[in-house]
Amino acid sequence: MTTAPPLLIFAGSTRAQSHNRRLAQVAAALARDAGASVTHIELADFDLPIYNADLEARGTPAAAIRLKEIFHAHPAWVICSPEYNGSYTGLLKNTIDWVSSPVQGDPTWGDGLKPFAGKVVGLMSASPGALGGLQSLSHLSPLLLNLQCWLTPKQFALARAGEAFDADGQLLHEAARRGVQGVVEQVLWAAQRLHG
Ligand SMILES: Cc1cc2nc3c(=O)[nH]c(=O)nc-3n(C[C@H](O)[C@H](O)[C@H](O)COP(=O)(O)O)c2cc1C
Fold it and tell me: Contacts by 89-97 with C-beta closer than 8 Å and gap 24+?
């Protein structure tokens, strides 16, 4: 797996004790174990206002440009998506809206699809609930398909996330670890074939 394309991992939460941020840590560690070169970002490090076209007309925020560069540079992604009201978070939507919005007159970022098109994306979620935030993935999937991403058939939803990790952030149950590993391996496998 040493020739695997670079893998980007991020969670759709900035909460300090976020289950999805923990899940992203686990996924990043498993991907590194599989030989992948992993970039694990925190959306808290990208200061983005709520998307507003009037604001954008005065200049796309530097954080949005930086995210465009990062998204574009990584052929493979894993996204850990919390579930709010049966869908994904406003944070995730706002981030994707900024990154997918064309920068008018910019020769590099004039195409809004450029950071997304052709990416191989594996989706995971974590929630204290019994379904593990699965509904957020069913909403996130069509959004990413619309942006020309390839989604892996395997997804993973971590139920009862409050009891799923030990104090070091490791998953307590082998079945959950295998669920994460299955998505990570499939993303790397598909990205290798599409982009390797
Ligand atoms: C506004 C709001 C709506 C929520 N709706 C759902 C829901 O529909 N399904 C669910 O499983 N959890 C729901 N939750 C609980 C979240 O899954 C929980 O807060 C989770 O810890 C958020 O992810 P994080 O730990 O990565 O921040 C909701 C939480 C909030 C704040």
Answer: 89/12, 89/13, 89/136, 91/12, 91/13, 91/14, 91/43, 92/12, 92/43, 92/140, 93/143, 94/48, 94/50, 94/51, 95/12, 95/43, 95/46, 95/48, 95/67, 96/143, 96/147, 97/51
pTM of the model: 0.98
Nearest CA to ligand 1 atom 30: 84
Q: Is the CB of 128 under 6 A from ligand 1?
A: yes
Domain definitions of the chain by residue range: 7-195
CATH of domain 7-195: 3.40.50.360
C-alpha 75 to ligand 1 mean position (Å): 29
Q: Give the position, in ligand 1's atom list, of the atom nearest the Cα of 11.
A: 26
pLDDT tens, position by position, 79-101: 999 999 999 999 999 999 999 99
